[in-house]
Amino acid sequence: MSPDITSPSVTILIVNWNRREDTLECLASLSEISYPNYRIMLVDNGSTDQSVEAVQHSFPHVEIIRSDKNLRFAGGNNLGIERFLESDDDLCLLLNNDTTVDPGFLEPLVQAMQSAPEIGIAGPKILYHHRPGVIWFAGGVIKPAWGYVRHFGLRQPDDGRFDQPLDVSFLTGCCMLIRREVIEKTGMLDEGFYLYSEDADYCLRASKAGYKLKYEPTSHIYHKLSQSTGGAYHPEKWRRRYQSLFRLVQKHTSPLTYPLFALNLIWELISLPINALLQTYRLPSEKQHL
Q1: Which candidate, 154, 167, 163, 143, places its Cα nearest to that of 225?
Q2: Going from the N-terminus, what domains does the chain have, and what CATH number goes with each?
Q3: Could you count the other beta carbons within 10 Å of the beta carbon of residue 245?
Q4: Cα distances (Å, whole numbers) of residue 19 to 43, 272, 286
Q5: Helices marked H in 59-179 — which ranges?
């Protein structure tokens, strides 16, 4: 694609670890997008499933950065962000490889960024890949003292109630468009988070640096979810999640708030089996895609 110099240049950054088919499907959807000025960069975290060879064969225009080990979400993205900073591109889009995108998803995000210089990060409406009429993410909120990170619109029908742009305190790393100067001032993702909460930490850091976060509902993508951790209610996922949330609390609050985190943790542990049961009853075809 010939770049359009009137449109900000975007690096689309995807991290892959042994999810060849997901990554190929994601790249296939990106090949249909209408935005005129972008490049795609894939960071491979030491895959052993021939992911790199498959991408090179089917999408030779994709720039590939290979790591010899799994650097996880933060480390893999940081490799790509370093390469982004060496370029002249204006914006960096972090995109999970277990997503597909609408052809016109990128224009509204770029327009949101262009609407005000204080908007540092923009994110789309995210729908379930297997139930595209149901919302997974419509903006979100962080309350760091409680270790509380929540999605607006979760499991709600996409019926127009979440169609207004919002200034939010949380955008998911599943898909976030970041202004170059935010990265230059805020720095890289924190690799101390083993899994989960890297995005929440980055949102808090960007907000502290004076930037706003914008949810843009006219941009749509579709997420398969929990593909690398065994499903929404897998014990390993929740262990890692709470571990990372406590690190978030430690990093952004004082020890005086730790009892609030403990209360929130107890409440979540009590409600978790109830939510799992309700979810199994309401959406049996989706119980592994939350």
Answers
A1: 154
A2: 10-286 (3.90.550.60)
A3: 23
A4: 12, 28, 20
A5: 72-86, 106-115
Is the C-alpha dihedral spanning 180, 182, 183, 184 positive or negative? positive
Residue 173 CB neighbour total at 10 angstroms: 21
- Report how far residue 189's alpha carbon sits from residue 172's, in angstroms, rounded to the nearest whole number: 13
Q: Is pLDDT above 90 for 238? A: no
- Quickly state the pLDDT bin for 216 (edges 50, 70, 90): very high
99's tokens: 């997503």
pLDDT tens digits, one per residue of 244-285: 888 998 999 989 888 888 888 887 777 766 555 555 444 434
Burial track 105-122 (b if 16+ CB lie within 10 A, e otherwise): bbbbbbebbeeeeebbbb
Q: For residue 60, is pLDDT > 70? A: yes
Provide CB contacts within 8 A for 262, sequence distance 6+. none
CA pair distance 73, 193, nearest whole angstrom: 9
Helix residue ranges, H only, the chain = 20-30, 51-58, 72-86, 106-115, 180-186, 198-208, 235-252, 258-282
pTM higher than 0.85, yes or no? yes
How far, in Å, CA of 270 to CA of 255, rounded?
Answer: 24
The whole-angstrom separation of Cα 233 and Cα 280 is 11
